[in-house]
Automatic annotation (TrEMBL):
Coiled coil: none
E.C. numbers: 3.4.14.-
Source organism superkingdom: Bacteria
Designated name of the protein: Dipeptidyl-peptidase
InterPro entries from the UniProt entry: Pep_S46, Peptidase_S1_PA, Peptidase_S1_PA_chymotrypsin
Organism field: Hymenobacter terrestris
Task performed by this protein: Catalyzes the removal of dipeptides from the N-terminus of oligopeptides.
Enzyme class: hydrolase
Length: 702
């Protein structure tokens, strides 16, 4: 299909005819309607980072295993390791709480561009424009919250050429209902991650709870009951075929399809290599310790998976940018755009855009490594992130305000408990030594924090000696010591702590010497980008652009579709359980298949989930345009039935967030029949399948 993560409110105007041609049978109102139940009411944003969908009238929610991973790990102990063994709640009383986890359900969205830009002209100074719009964004969102009843925000689209208001209900009681064993939910591990063909049962189940009036609560509350959604998705049992219509509804996080060539170039030759190097270093240290100690393996499982996911993403993105010549393509587009601008005096308003972008990127490039090494280096070290969390308390201690001090202290209790539950100081010490050393070596001398001068003077330049000192003397290495500090907090003690001092040095250097320069360049870039995007849309006025993903609700549509990966290689559109047997490797933890699953597959015990050839369907691909944040999104057929869950993208199109290639980009999905088979046959939890609305209305439209 074509590129596009569309705002559901515009489906009727922008895409309906094309969608119908591809097989959509629903009306625009059945997809998005503010007043009546529509598909949008079945789709939720999970925890701000993933998507989920209701599949029962009792608030039962499906999402990916990798989206539920942190909740699954947090509810695991070495004695009751549900991450490893899987888990299905036998009754609602067995469902597991997840403090802090929430879902947002869209109430409505609104185009507020006119309101944001009223009175602003091309002559309005940039700083004034920014301040005015920010104030209006805040006020508009505040009014829409209706005294805290809703969550609301205004997001800009197309580089600040348009603005939209989003209003949600936020439910803070989301309980874990089920998950397959990790060997199923993460089958193929990092080796298969970002790749097709795939055999991962990437799903987990939650339930949303509300108060007696079906209204959201801030956290888990006594007396809460399963939420009754306005709409839940029926499940299609008939399965999929190449060419079937497919749409994906969800919350894609971030794309940068309007990133200029200079930005792409910087990503390619500096940002991605730095991120890859720092993550590679951190992952190797973690893995060595995880392999030695099963308890530590469980503690670091979720952190490891998160860092590894985008480590491989950055590698794939760079490989793809080189292979597909992404920078050259963008450069050629910019040359054509510059010519178009020069052709007509009326386009003079855009003339400053491209030169200003070049100029701004010179500055951004000068400070880019510092930014990367602060984020992925210093903050790649856990103790530095804990030190950073002490900042508000330090502020309160400075003010001497007793109320503020006790508030800041209390606010740290839960985070500190969470932090130490999954923390190993000896492991983190190795990470500190390695990452801070790379930071010291790789960042330009003039941009280094003072702490490195101390390392040179006091430890002869040895970061590992410095790490020894920090970890032997900091109170931030142990929960007992941090709690003792919180019982009697003192500014002097905090400021004398070597880990806190390290953080302070990195942070103040960044705030004083790096951030102001980068921010000034960014302000120039904001204006230039806005003009650049406006010019591009005017030049290509026959093309309908969709705005870059920004964690707001979107719909993408396409079809079930195979692809040619490279010369002579064609990838089929679906996988089956046969492939699980082919990949099985009891000696490789990423490809272990649980004994029960092996037995069921070998016996072809697929029940009602078998396809017409008697195989068990596992995964399939569509040409929907998605990105991270869409994980867990429902894949819906032309009648509005659930056919799968989106969970990944393919290796050949890892540049997809920067440039869309319709021939190569695919969305990787787990077939809903595999999900249900895992729950019922493998997990023995038929009661959960029975909650859903299974139906077979014949072949999918398309
Ligand atoms: N690449 C997937 C995504 O970001 C996440 C897959 C998680 N699986 C894993 N093996 N780390 O959507």
């Amino acid at each position: 299909a074509d590129e596009g993560m569309w705002l559901p409110m515009f489906i009727k105007r922008l895409n309906q005819a094309d969608m119908q041609k591809k097989g959509l049978k629903l009306t625009a109102e059945e997809i998005y309607d503010v007043n009546n139940a529509s598909l949008k009411d079945a789709v939720v944003q999970l925890g701000g980072f993933c998507t989920g969908e209701f599949v029962s009238s009792q608030g039962l929610l499906l999402t990916n295993h990798h989206c539920g991973y942190d909740a699954i790990q947090s509810n695991s102990t070495p004695q009751d390791n549900i991450l490893q063994n899987g888990f299905y709640a036998a009754t609602k009383a067995d469902e597991k709480k997840n403090p802090g986890l929430f879902v947002d359900i869209l109430v409505r969205m609104e185009d507020v561009t006119g309101k944001m830009l009223e009175g602003i002209t091309a002559a309005t100074p940039e700083a004034e424009r920014m301040a005015t719009i920010q104030k209006r964004q805040r006020e508009t969102a505040e009014a829409a919250k209706e005294n805290g009843q809703y969550v609301a925000y205004v997001r800009d689209m197309f580089g600040g050429n348009e603005y939209y208001l989003f209003i949600y209900q936020r439910f803070g009681d989301v309980r874990l209902v089920g998950a397959p064993p990790e060997a199923v939910g993460k089958f193929g591990g990092d080796t298969d991650n970002w790749m097709w063909p795939r055999h991962t049962g990437d799903f987990s189940m939650f339930r949303v709870y509300a108060d007696k009036n079906n209204k959201p609560t801030a956290g888990t509350q006594e007396g809460n009951v399963p939420y009754v959604p306005k709409k839940h998705l029926p499940v299609a049992m008939q399965g999929i075929q190449e060419g079937d219509f497919a749409m994906v509804f969800g919350f894609p996080g971030r794309t940068q399809r309007f990133l200029p060539a200079a930005g792409l170039q910087l990503t390619l030759d500096e940002s991605n290599p730095a991120r890859i190097k720092l993550r590679d270093t951190r992952l190797k240290i973690w893995k060595a310790d995880m392999d030695k100690n099963p308890d530590l393996r469980l503690q670091y499982a979720s952190k490891y998976a998160n860092i590894a996911n985008y480590w491989k993403y950055f590698i794939g993105q760079n490989e793809g940018m080189n292979r597909l010549k992404t920078v050259d393509t963008k450069k050629a587009e910019e040359v054509a755009l510059a010519q178009w601008i020069a052709q007509d005096p009326a386009r003079q308003q855009y003339a400053e855009a491209l030169p200003a972008i070049e100029e701004a990127y010179k500055t951004v490039r000068q400070y880019n490594l510092s930014s990367q090494y602060v984020n992925e280096g210093a903050f790649g070290t856990e103790i530095v992130t804990l030190a950073a969390r002490m900042m508000p308390l330090a502020g309160a201690l400075k003010s001497g305000d007793k109320g503020a001090i006790s508030k800041a202290t209390e606010a740290l209790r839960e985070p500190v408990k969470d932090y130490f539950k999954d923390y190993s100081a000896p492991t983190d010490q190795k990470v500190f030594a390695a990452l801070m050393n790379l930071y010291m070596q790789d960042v330009p001398a003039a941009q280094q924090p003072d702490v490195f001068a101390t390392v040179k003077k006091q430890y002869g330049g040895s970061m590992s000696k410095c790490a020894d000192y920090v970890f032997s003397n900091s109170f931030l290495t142990s929960e007992a010591k941090v709690n003792a500090f919180l019982a009697n907090p003192s500014l002097a003690k905090l400021e004398a702590d070597p880990a806190y001092k390290t953080y302070q040095s990195v942070y103040s250097n960044y705030v004083q010497n790096i951030a102001p320069k980068v921010q000034a360049a960014q302000a120039g870039l904001a204006r230039a980008n806005r003009l650049y995007v406006a010019a591009l849309r005017e030049k290509n006025s026959q093309k309908v652009y969709s705005p870059d993903a920004n964690s707001t609700i979107r719909l993408s549509y396409g079809t079930v579709r195979s692809y040619n990966g490279r010369d002579a290689v064609n990838y089929n559109y679906k996988t089956t359980a046969q492939g699980i047997l082919e990949k099985e490797d009891p000696t490789n933890p990423e490809f272990v298949v649980p004994a029960k699953e092996l037995a069921l597959i070998k016996a072809k015990d697929f029940g009602r989930y078998a396809d017409k050839d008697g195989n068990l369907p596992v995964g399939f691909i569509t040409d929907n345009d998605i990105t991270g944040g869409n994980s867990g999104s429902p894949v819906i057929n032309g009648r509005g039935e659930l056919i799968g869950l989106a969970f990944d993208g393919n290796w050949e199109a890892m540049t997809g967030d920067l440039a869309y290639d319709p021939e190569l980009k695919r969305c990787i999905n787990v077939d809903i029949r595999y999900v249900l088979w895992c729950v019922e046959k493998l997990g023995g939890a038929k009661h959960l399948v029975d909650e859903m609305t299974l139906q077979n209305n014949g072949p999918n439209p398309g």
